[in-house]
Structure to design on (1043 residues):
């Protein structure tokens, strides 16, 4: 008879002294690991809950502007330089590392309409009233004397937007109904484009096809220009006007526009007849957007006082940021490393947020990093389970009630507008025949207003007003 | 297909492929199949020719690719989704293959008892003979404790097999460290001890005493008295759910969450006294053996038993379930041990004993131990087929066996009997390769603490105890209409108004003399009342008119300016 029994020597299974590595023995037999799926699910649920627990996205505010912040820009060469322009004409340069203002100047008489950093990173351009100014960009310089502009370009019309060429010494501005291309060395624009008869609000150079320009205007159009051809290329007309435009830095064929109708539209520049995707969630006009350097997501700021982050292929936002005191958001930016979001709003403050709400800042030990990776994988695997999805999707919104009202109002107005549209077309035709018809339009406006008042028992929401007037103004 | 063929292992692989073929015919579209006859419907791995590799691939498919049946990805039209699912599936299959490969690297082999001659019978080998032939360390496992006064003894092993909990019916409780062969703590409770169980680790244990269940720590300190568990007979602890279950003389099964202290569920079994309780390690369902010969299966989320099966013609004295949840062995006072297939709930075969078996257990590697009278027999390969002779046996003359429990991860069977405890060596009983992250017999204090925290974080909700634990995280394949019906029913139940609690009719003091007189005066109509009533009606009328006028003027005020001319 042959006998063998299990006999384990303790020394082979335990470490000799404290400094040794802990011995781990694995056996992957499923019989030894009961409830593996259920336990994994529980872990995913815990990870999702922890995510919510640590979701504290607000990092800090940059305080100093005396008026609402209207535009901002980041250097493509430097992570810490951040430029902002306010409604009172002041331009400030911030050091994001120490969160301090390092340079400031009253650059323009009215609003600072646009800022853009030259590709070298040494200078930047500001545009406002009827001038474009070039300034030296230097974070370390702490001289208190009033700085002077390096160059100034004058124009006869108001300039509303500026974007610098990605490589050459060119920059483009929007001047009333025209898009102008300027050379650093010339005092007059070298090229001028126009298509349509309304004011242009935003001009952007394509990051890959460097002679391609896109603009949005109040004629509801998105227009593409080619500077080599010297003519406009294509045009898409949307339902309402677009406030801002941004090219996807990783897929430069695509661009996204922020529209007044609370949505964002992603277009493929080859197919302008139809938007690739509509990004919905805002309940106010979207004022600005900026892509992450990875091109995977973009951040938007809106008139509804919230900042949202969208995946570039997602129709709904994955994150919404708001604070009690943050007013209408006019400019947003993704930091150069894609980890932070910078916003400027009407309440004169600049705010720094994390791009991932529950992201842990600072150095992580490898073990913690591994654990986070594992949790990330688990969350992804179980994201469709109802409980996990519910927790992951939940957002606390203090002004939820307000948003809901605005949302329902939006729906209602859309309905009325649709109803009125057919009637208006008739009126429009009659208007050409007899100018008195215009009064009917005004009456119908009053009707809409009172209808809503009676419905809600309150005065019209600002956004709603804007919405209706826009629809009717061209008709009147 | 006979139930014996459904076993995993050599013939299990065959049955798996059978099952997958069956699935194909039901799920696949027959017309499509004819059209694309060449496409293999099952995504099999193309393995190289060597028999070893083929065997490994087969094993990976059978053992590790849980629920990865034939895929229907090729039917999808969404390209992006299709490629993503394909990638995921590939990853799963690779992981399964890796796991199968890992098996070869396991360091230890299981114990065995091999006969050399034809007349060599393993059951003839006594423990004394065995002791002479095994290594020095194993010889330490042959021992007995003579405790003739406070018996009979019942026992429980900690989950990693290191600590032993011994309880004498007369109130003697001892915690023994089996690795060091050392008594860590001894208690004399002076009340009957009916059953005991370790909680999640050796740090705490529960004792079913005369009136209630008590919790103690390893220092012998009484931590809690669970007054919800009245007159308990048997205990079971579900380690992944942190649930302590007890069943008593009245037949109430109670689940207590030991991490939160909440009584999770109380189920009335309605089957009277219960003498056997055992958990199915695969799905955490509790099996109760009743005096009527019925075995019933319970989960805390159901008020009734999930399954109840008539197993014996007499009280059920013991239940044991193998660790993969396939076979159940039940012992009855009718002198029989029956083996059941838990997927079909059918009897496979039975063993008859001269004396009624008192306790029964199945080891990690599937050995069946039966204690009857003062004898213990262990049977090998006795679950899938009927074994014809015992594997090992042992007698304890003059002392009836009370409880048998195999020690996890060791070749040891612990026997509690009338006069003490016997440790018996059974080669090939324990799992040779433990997983340190699951149950580690050589756990340090720090590891134990960490495992405790992780265990609590991964605690499973009591509602997740079902007959098929794999349904969690899987796709619900019920037809759409059925699911919708269920959803509607749930919604309806939610909307149903809660019946208001009927107020108790308090009669006390109602018939007092003063109250009676007052009541008599209540409904008397005289002149005074009539005048009062008239006055009240007049006042109401005036008030109504006044309000009507007011509301009209208010409406005009409130209307927007443009609409005022309509009023």
């Amino acid at each position: 008879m042959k006998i063998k029994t299990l006999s384990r020597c303790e020394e082979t299974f335990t470490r000799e002294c404290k400094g040794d590595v802990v011995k781990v023995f694995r056996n992957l037999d499923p019989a030894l690991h009961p409830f593996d799926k259920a336990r994994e699910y529980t872990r995913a649920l815990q990870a999702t809950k922890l995510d919510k627990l640590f979701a504290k996205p607000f990092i800090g505010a940059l305080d100093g502007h005396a008026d609402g912040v209207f535009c901002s820009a980041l250097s493509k060469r430097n992570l810490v330089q951040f430029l902002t322009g306010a409604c009172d004409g002041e331009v400030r340069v911030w050091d994001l590392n120490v969160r301090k203002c390092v340079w400031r100047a009253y650059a323009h008489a009215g609003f600072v309409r646009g800022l853009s950093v030259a590709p070298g990173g040494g200078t930047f351009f500001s545009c406002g009233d009827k001038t474009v100014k070039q300034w030296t960009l230097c974070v370390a310089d702490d001289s208190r004397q009033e700085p002077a502009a390096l160059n100034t370009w004058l124009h006869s019309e108001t300039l509303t937007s500026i974007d610098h060429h990605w490589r050459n010494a060119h920059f483009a501005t929007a001047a009333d109904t025209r898009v102008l291309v300027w050379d650093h060395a010339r005092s007059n624009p070298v090229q001028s484009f126009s298509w349509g008869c309304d004011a242009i609000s935003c001009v952007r150079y394509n990051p890959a096809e460097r002679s391609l320009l896109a603009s949005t205007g109040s004629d509801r159009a998105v227009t593409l220009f080619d500077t080599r051809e010297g003519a406009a290329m294509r045009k898409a007309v949307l339902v309402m006007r677009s406030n801002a435009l941004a090219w996807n830095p990783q897929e430069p064929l695509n661009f996204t526009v922020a529209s007044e109708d609370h949505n964002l539209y992603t277009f493929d520049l080859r197919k302008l007849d139809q938007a690739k995707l509509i990004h919905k969630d805002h309940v106010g006009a979207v004022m600005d957007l900026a892509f992450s350097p990875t091109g995977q997501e973009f951040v938007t700021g809106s008139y509804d006082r919230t900042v949202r982050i969208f995946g570039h292929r997602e129709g709904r936002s994955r994150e919404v940021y708001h604070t009690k005191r943050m007013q209408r958001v006019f400019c947003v930016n993704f930091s150069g490393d894609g980890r932070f979001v910078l916003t400027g709003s009407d309440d004169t403050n600049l705010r720094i947020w994390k791009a991932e709400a529950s992201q842990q800042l600072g150095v992580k030990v490898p073990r913690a990093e591994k654990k986070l990776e594992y949790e990330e994988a688990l969350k992804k695997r179980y994201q469709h389970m109802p409980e996990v999805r519910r927790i992951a999707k939940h957002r606390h919104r203090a002004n939820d009630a307000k948003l809901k009202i605005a949302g329902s109002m939006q729906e209602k107005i859309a309905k009325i507008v649709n109803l009125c549209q057919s009637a208006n077309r008739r009126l429009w035709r009659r208007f050409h025949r007899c100018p008195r018809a215009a009064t009917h339009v005004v009456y119908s406006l009053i009707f809409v207003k009172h209808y809503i008042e009676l419905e809600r028992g309150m005065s019209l929401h600002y956004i709603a007003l804007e919405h209706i007037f826009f629809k009717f103004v061209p008709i009147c | 297909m006979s139930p014996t063929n459904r076993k995993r292992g050599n013939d299990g692989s065959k049955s798996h492929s059978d099952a997958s073929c069956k699935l194909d015919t039901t799920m696949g579209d027959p017309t499509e199949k004819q059209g694309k006859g060449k496409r293999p419907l099952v995504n099999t791995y193309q393995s190289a020719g060597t028999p070893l590799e083929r065997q490994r691939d087969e094993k990976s498919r059978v053992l590790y690719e849980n629920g990865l049946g034939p895929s229907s990805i090729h039917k999808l039209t969404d390209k992006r989704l299709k490629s993503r699912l394909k990638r995921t599936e590939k990853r799963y299959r690779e992981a399964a293959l890796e796991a199968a490969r890992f098996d070869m690297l396991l360091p230890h082999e299981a114990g065995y008892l091999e006969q050399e001659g034809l007349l060599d019978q393993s059951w003839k080998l006594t423990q004394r003979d065995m002791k002479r032939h095994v290594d020095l360390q194993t010889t330490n496992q042959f021992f007995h404790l003579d405790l003739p006064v406070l018996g009979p003894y019942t026992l429980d092993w900690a989950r990693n097999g290191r600590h032993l909990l011994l309880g004498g019916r007369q109130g003697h409780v001892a915690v023994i460290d089996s690795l060091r062969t050392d008594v860590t703590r001894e208690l004399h409770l002076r009340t009957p001890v009916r059953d005991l169980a370790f909680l999640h680790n050796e740090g705490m244990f529960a004792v079913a005493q005369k009136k209630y269940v008590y919790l103690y720590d390893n220092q012998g300190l009484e931590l809690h008295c669970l007054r919800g568990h009245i007159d308990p007979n048997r205990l079971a602890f579900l380690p992944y759910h942190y649930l302590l279950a007890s069943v008593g003389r009245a037949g109430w099964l109670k689940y207590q969450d030991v991490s939160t202290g909440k009584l999770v569920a109380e189920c009335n079994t309605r089957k009277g006294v219960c003498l056997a309780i055992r958990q199915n390690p695969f799905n955490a369902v509790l099996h109760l053996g009743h005096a009527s010969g019925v075995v019933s299966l319970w989960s805390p989320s159901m008020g009734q038993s999930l399954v109840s099966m008539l197993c014996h013609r007499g009280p059920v004295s013991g239940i044991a379930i193998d660790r993969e949840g396939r076979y159940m062995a039940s012992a009855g006072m009718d002198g029989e041990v029956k083996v059941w297939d838990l997927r079909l709930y059918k009897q496979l075969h039975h063993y008859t004993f001269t004396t009624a078996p008192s306790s029964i257990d199945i080891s990690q590697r599937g050995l069946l131990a039966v204690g009857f009278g003062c004898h213990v027999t262990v049977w090998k390969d006795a679950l899938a087929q009927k074994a014809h002779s015992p594997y090992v046996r042992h007698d304890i003359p003059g002392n009836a066996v009370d409880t048998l429990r195999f020690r996890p991860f060791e070749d040891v069977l612990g026997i509690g009997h009338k006069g003490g405890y016997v440790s018996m060596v059974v080669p090939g009983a324990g799992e040779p390769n433990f997983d340190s992250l699951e149950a580690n017999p050589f756990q340090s204090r720090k590891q134990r603490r960490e495992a405790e925290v992780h265990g609590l974080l991964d605690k499973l909700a009591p509602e997740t105890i079902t007959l098929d634990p794999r349904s969690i995280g899987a796709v619900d394949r019920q037809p759409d209409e059925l699911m919708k019906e269920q959803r509607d029913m749930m919604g309806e139940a939610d909307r149903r108004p809660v019946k208001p609690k009927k107020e108790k009719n308090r009669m006390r003091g109602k018939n007092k003399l003063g109250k009676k007189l007052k009541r008599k005066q209540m409904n008397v109509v005289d002149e005074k009342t009539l005048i009062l009533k008239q006055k009240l009606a007049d006042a109401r009328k005036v008030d109504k008119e006044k309000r009507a006028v007011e509301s009209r003027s208010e409406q005009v005020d409130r209307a927007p300016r443009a609409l005022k001319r309509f009023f």
About this structure: The helical segments of chain A are 10-13, 36-53, 366-381, 386-393, 400-433, 437-456, 462-472.
